Amino acid sequence: MPSLNLGSSDKGVFTVDADVVVTGRTCVIGTSGSGKSYAVGVFCEELCKAQIPFALLDVEGEYSGLKERYEVIWIGEDVDCDLKWAELNVKELARSAPDITPLILDVSETIDPEVKVDQFLKQIYSEVSSRRVPYLIIIEEADKFAPQVGKRLQIIEEIARRGRKRGLGIMLCTQRPSLVDKNILSQCSNQLIGKLVIKNDLEAVTQFFPGKGLPKHLTSLSPGSFYALGGLSPVPLPVKIRPRETTHGGITPLLANRAVKPSLELSRFRTLKPKELILGVPYRFDHKEVSARIKKDRRYLFFGEEEVIENVQLVYHPLIELRIRVQSGFLRKRFLDKFLTIDGRTGAIVKFENRVVFKETLTPLLGLEAHDIELLKALDSDKEVAVKDINMAPSFPEDLIKRSLRSLEKKGFVKMSKYGKVKKVRRTIDLPKIQLNEEGLRLERINLDGARKGKVKVKLSGVKDVMETLLPGSELIGSTCFYYPFYIIKLGLGKKYRFVKVDGLSGEMVDF
Ligand SMILES: Nc1ncnc2c1ncn2[C@@H]1O[C@H](COP(=O)(O)OP(=O)(O)O)[C@@H](O)[C@H]1O
Ligand SMILES: [Mg+2]
Hints:
There is one protein chain. The protein has helices at residues 18-22, 36-49, 90-96, 113-131, 142-145, 154-166, 182-187, 199-206, 255-258, 287-296, 363-366, 370-378, 398-411, 460-470; strands at residues 3-9, 12-17, 25-29, 54-58, 73-76, 83-84, 103-106, 135-139, 168-174, 190-193, 225-230, 237-241, 277-280, 308-328, 334-343, 348-353, 355-361, 385-386, 414-419, 422-427, 444-447, 452-453, 475-493, 496-503, 509-510. By secondary structure, the protein is of the alpha/beta class. It folds into three domains: 17-261, Rossmann fold (3-Layer(aba) Sandwich), CATH 3.40.50; 278-336 and 442-510, no CATH class; 366-427, Orthogonal Bundle (Arc Repressor Mutant, subunit A). The strands form four sheets. It has a twelve-stranded mixed sheet with strand order 2-1-12-11-10-3-9-8-4-7-5-6. Strands 14, 15, 16, 17, 22, 23, 24 and 25 form an eight-stranded mixed sheet that branches. It has a three-stranded antiparallel sheet with strand order 18-20-19, with helices on one face. The structure holds adenosine-5'-diphosphate and magnesium ion (MG). Residues 30, 32-38, 223-224, 241, 243, 248-249 line the site of adenosine-5'-diphosphate (ADP).
């Protein structure tokens, strides 16, 4: 088998025999932010190059970037996915897995990940066992799926114990080695160990360091730096994982257009569903209740008593929940995932205050380059500043300011004035104030049942630039499109008519 180029060490290039990994048992350990997922991404790139089949359990939705260069099948809930969990025959997929391109099993937005994963693992285990073909399973957050205490997927232990002989390898990632089932962890004969700080976790990995105990730097390793041990290196070897070739962190703008589509016929794995299921919010008011409410509530009587309801149509409107990773912590950097919902058609920020409220829109900013937005941030909307006094970082040279101002002026986002020789500028648009939500929405799979479904128009590539510039230090790492119920009601009197829109959850009228 070929060797995988993972990065470098003092000794030069750091490569590993594909065999060792593919049918072996490997753990990737390190605190959050130590670069585990990044390293796993590098493994995946190398495996793709070597045409070695694998399935990656993606719990954060951060691996779809692989599609920029490689043929992989992305299974998840996202609009851009190749296959949706809901319409998938998991067993059939697992049966074919060794013969097809690698799989990203994205369960980041899946309601019952354990069930899906359990099904997949059991089937692939039996498949590989009977056919004796090499296959690698990669599991992120092993402490969740195979904890020392609590509910676990038994099949993981089975694979760790007996997979190797059958050709089925496993790679487990965890930030909390002390919480992973000890039997499983001790089965891992290949180790990549990065920064750890918690005492129990340090203790849990001592078993891997022969002789003198833990290296001192283990608590202060930088992201991407690991010790390679066991089957990966005969002596503990400090290594630096190489840069990714594809985007790390999931969202890849307009992936659908750039992605290499898997050549196989995906429809093979689709089960036919009599009715389409979509990720969304179920309505609480049905047609009848909405009509009754409209009739009762005098506010809606626009044409007087005799206005009649001519038509009530349920429409599912696309909203996009963004997952944004922000840095927090002053001394020790931590990453927190927060959320923001935007309108999938206009880019307006959406808040849920009993009913849906559409707030400021990101739309005007969506076409702008990051430096244009930076510049807008530096300007005031109620005060003119002299162009020469605009305070920008040294990386933002004067000619870029000038160029950027010209393009912003053309778009009408700034107003320039001249006072003698002094040029002044004022911002004419408001920049949205973004307040992120601490928690994501609880979405369900709902039945479309013949209702209409709106189309997403917002380009996520633009949203990524805008968000990351408006919120410095943040990273847009994922997005989920889902559908929100509204009723469009046609009210008429004679030849006159008008439309009102009612929130299908609260029954309240909304502006649109
Ligand atoms: N080998 C690397 N080279 C460059 N940057 C890296 C490397 N490893 C990690 N990083 C940076 O650190 C961040 C966190 O890494 P990640 O792999 O997501 O951490 P975790 O260990 O929590 O999975 C990445 O978004 C990336 O910016
Ligand atoms: Mg990670």
